[in-house]
Design goal:
Elements lengths: L1 H53 L5 H15 L8 E9 L3 E9 L7 E9 L3 H13 L1
Antiparallel strand pairs: 1-2, 2-3
Helix pairs in contact: 1-2
């Protein structure tokens, strides 16, 4: 008689524990997907800022328009759970700022905003200043 009660208690305990373990596994999987997408957005922003920094003979408006066009397709197809991504690019004479925003419906609606900056390169000005310093 006691053996039957012990076997039954294991079934009851398992039926209470399994849904909790499945919930923990689901939350862990969602967070892994979310962190992957944040990493992708961050690397896309850094890549785009680096591309913009290498373009040296364009005006701010031309460079901003070109980078905005590049930003739209750079993260497409790489994201696993984030949707509604928006890209914003701001170009000044000294630096380039690229930011991505994304949103997901998982776990109550997580949002991600990743922003990267790069200094605009002007190799001619840099070389001239180095040569002037060597003359001194």
């Amino acid at each position: 008689m006691r053996e039957k009660l012990k076997k039954g208690s294991f079934t009851v305990e398992a039926s209470m524990l399994i849904p909790f373990l499945i919930l923990i596994l689901f939350v862990f999987l969602c967070l892994c997907l979310y962190l992957h997408d944040r990493s992708v957005l961050s690397s896309c922003a850094a890549e785009l800022a680096g591309k913009g920094a290498a373009e040296k003979y364009q005006t701010e408006k031309e460079l901003e328009a070109w980078l905005q066009g590049q930003a739209a397709g750079l993260a497409r197809g790489k994201l696993l759970c984030l949707r509604e991504t928006e890209a914003a690019v701001k170009v000044t004479k000294q630096k380039i700022t690229v930011s991505y925003m994304g949103r997901t419906g998982l776990l109550g609606g997580l949002t991600a905003k990743e922003e990267e900056q790069a200094a605009r390169l002007n190799p001619t000005k840099r070389l001239r200043s180095i040569r002037e310093l060597k003359k001194l």
